[in-house]
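Task: fold both queries, return tokens.
Query 1:
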Amino acid sequence: MTIRNSLRTAAVLATSTLALTACSADNPSAPQKDQASESRTTGPEPEQPPAPDRTAAPDDGGGSGLAQVTGRDSIVLTITHVERSASGKSITVSATLKNTGTKSFFGISAYGGTDASIKGRMHSLAGATLTDTGNNMRYYVLRDTAGGCLCSTALRALKPGETVPVFAQFPAPPDNVSSADFQLPTFPNATIPLGAAR
């Protein structure tokens, strides 16, 4: 076989292979790659806790939340995350406070509650509680060794449209308690899922 014939044969084979590849790509009956299994290789989708039925869709700049309630002077509290510690002994509730009104809000001191023994409570979330209604138990914000709350402190007035992140840490209800009512002075109760230990 001459070199010219060999080159011609190779060109015909290459053209045939390209034609077959194009046909199989255009053929809907050709086996397709499983897109579901491909997406699973990038890692499982994170589980989203169920949103309580009695709360409205959050208005926190497009983010999702577990619960949302509106308090005095158009301040909106959105619970964004609830997590049990690895030991299962505490629960941390993370949230945002947003001023949806047209005037600055200076009533932050109400969120500190009435327990005067808590250090720095007047500008904190020290007045927050977590209530297990099924077992008729109320949990108060944990304190550090200096008597301060394990919660957001040094809060200041909220300007119109301003949003600030806040948190409060509580003793954890038993593992079999799947939800509780989060309460902050001047706001209605917000029922939140408690989740499992990390």
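Query 1 returned. Query 2:
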Amino acid sequence: MRAKPPAAPPAAPPSGARRLVTVAAVTLIAAAAAPTTVAHAIPSATVSPIAVAPGGRVALNVAGCGTQVARVTSTAFGEARLTPGNQTAASLIGNATVYNNATPGAHRVVFECGGPGGERVTLSLQVTTGAARGGTGGSIGSMSPGQIALGSALTVGALGAGVWVMRRRAAAS
């Protein structure tokens, strides 16, 4: 029997293919060594306004929870549930009414993503002295007597001009 000649060594891949294989191998190693990323961002929360009188309402917002619900607790208003502000649940929104007998001063507001035991964000809410403004939303609370007089004069002037135009049209007909 005749012995077979040794097999020829495999041909080296072209330099472009070698470079592609090297890049793919390095990428695979780097991906395996990198830590996994979190599916959602670190939550951030807001309370608006940050200072409110007893009986007032605050808007609550948390973004980056990665859940469809969140719970908010505070000694100023008890507990509130937040729900998605849009279809993608990028932010969860809700409202709360500050207790009428809330103690003036700083109160902790704790946001918990997904409910109790979830990721937490803590803010501060300042309860001020005095009652919450109602009705016109406080838009007339800071008007001076001069501003009231000017507004009244403008109103009377507009009414007078309206009467004058109507009488003139009636005389022309």
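Both queries returned. Flag for query 2: DSSP finds two helices and eight strands in the chain.
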